[in-house]
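Collaborator request, handled under Task 6.
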Amino acid sequence: MKVRIEGMSCSGCSARVEKAMKALAGIKEVRVDLADHSATYAGEVSEAAVREAIEDIGYEVKGFEA
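Structure tokens returned to the collaborator:
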């Protein structure tokens, strides 16, 4: 699953997003792509939980793609 993220501008931003997503129960793998402003993840976790984790650290979720 891929999530579009607005507001990431540096490697520190992508590291924060990766850390927040990896902390979610059910996440098995996360790969953040700063250039594409997205993160791809695998695991059993709701879109709502992913959205909350990302927005809680100050970024905006623009949508999800399968």
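The cover message to the collaborator said: "Residues 2-65 form a domain with the Alpha-Beta Plaits fold (CATH 3.30.70.100). The chain has two helices and four strands. Please let us know whether this matches your experimental observations."
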